[in-house]
Amino acid sequence: MINILLIDDHAVVRRGLTMLLNAHPNMEVVGEASEGNEGIQKALEHKPDVVIMDLSMPHGKDGLSATSELKKLLPQCVILILTMHDDEEYLFRVIQAGASGCILKSAPHEELIAAIQSVYSGNAYLNPSATKRLMEEYLSNVKSGASDSYSLLSDREKEVLTLIAKGYSNKEIAEQLIISVKTVETHKGNVMEKLQMKTRPELVAYALKKGLLGYGI
Known about the structure:
Layout: E1 2-7, H1 11-22, E2 27-33, H2 36-46, E3 50-54, H3 63-73, E4 78-83, H4 89-97, E5 101-104, H5 109-120, H6 128-142, H7 155-165, H8 170-177, H9 181-195, H10 200-210
Parallel strand pairs: 1-2, 1-3, 3-4, 4-5
């Protein structure tokens, strides 16, 4: 029996996953949490085999930070990141945080079951081609020399950069910083101009290099 802990800020998602997984003969949901801090406490209490962790949770500790901390507290626990983002940039961050894999919320139920079984068996659930592309993107940016430009960013721009790298949307960043979406877009534009970058993956690779996510290289 694979004991599973669900960490997702949407109650409807948790309820649906619980019904799906409990219907499987070899799986049981032993606990639920709505954000990272609560999830860590539930994990310490239940010591699940597999944790299914939402990547983006606007309130409380986000998925990647919770993953990084949980792997230090319960190294034997395997973590599968659940996300709505399909960009390659998130895959590298998932690995760096200590998760065993990543699956889209839009994936078929059969794929989720397969992903859980894979990570439970000690395997990674990753897309090799996406991993290769992201690694190439990261290595390219390590050589770009943009790190010296960090001092040019304002405190607010640094906050926006960090939240972008953690996977938050412009709307979620606006809500968290209590500013307008337009202001977020302005700050993002300023960051990209100052760092001489053009894409979100470049910003993510840069944030990893600078250690802004707490688990950089």
